[in-house]
Amino acid sequence: MIDDKCLKILAAVYSLRNENPNRPTFLSNEVATLLGVDDIGLLPAIRYLISAGLLDGNPMSIYAIPVALTAEGTDYVENPLDALRTVEKSLTQTNTINVGGNFNAIQSTILQMNTSAISETDANTVRDSFDTIVGQLPPDIAASQDIQKNRDSLNTKLGASDRLGAAGIISNLAKVVSIATDSAVLIQALPKIFDTIRLLFH
């Protein structure tokens, strides 16, 4: 499971790429500077991200490693829910169905996961996360009708215990943040988005 440190690295490389679209790679020490951490301490996490296929680079470099986001790494920033669903099998929701007539029980096995009601505590945590992330957006975007509709829709999804629907709304915030804010906000918001999606499926 990818941790917050790795998510912040992906967000930092994504931000550097957006700020410098003509540059194919960025040095690990540039990433470290953007994150405000020591370059040497960042290298193991960068090497892990390279081995996981989320960054492209030469993990054998001893000092500054030139890195670039892969398509999969970009998905982690722009589409957190889809990225998580490919690696964490618990992120699914199925509903009970009634099967009538003759059927083969082996072929008709139905997976029942994440169908219980979302607790009020978890629902409030999800709402708070949404509000915290939106609070970091520029005021005109935070007050936009689309954001307000998403907040209303989030309440509806949580009330209906629609985990995938609620997670999708939280996930969509990543794209908004990546376009509308500076790198510092994206770096802080991305781990919160992932943690909130995981909470919905814990």
Describe it for me?
By secondary structure, the chain is mainly alpha-helical. The protein starts with a helix and ends with a helix. Helix 2 (28-35) crosses helix 3 (39-51). Residues 95-113 have low confidence and may be disordered. The longest helix has 18 residues, at 163-180. Helices cover 61% and strands 4% of the residues. The protein contains ten helices and three strands. The chain has two domains: 1-78, Arc Repressor Mutant, subunit A, CATH 1.10.10.10; 80-93 and 118-202, no CATH class.
Oligomer: single chain
Biggest β-sheet strands, sense, barrel: 3 strands, antiparallel
The string of secondary-structure elements, in order, is HEHHEEHHHHHHH
- Summed up, the domain count is 2
What portion of residues belong to β-strands?
under 5%
Outline, from the CA principal axes?
A: globular
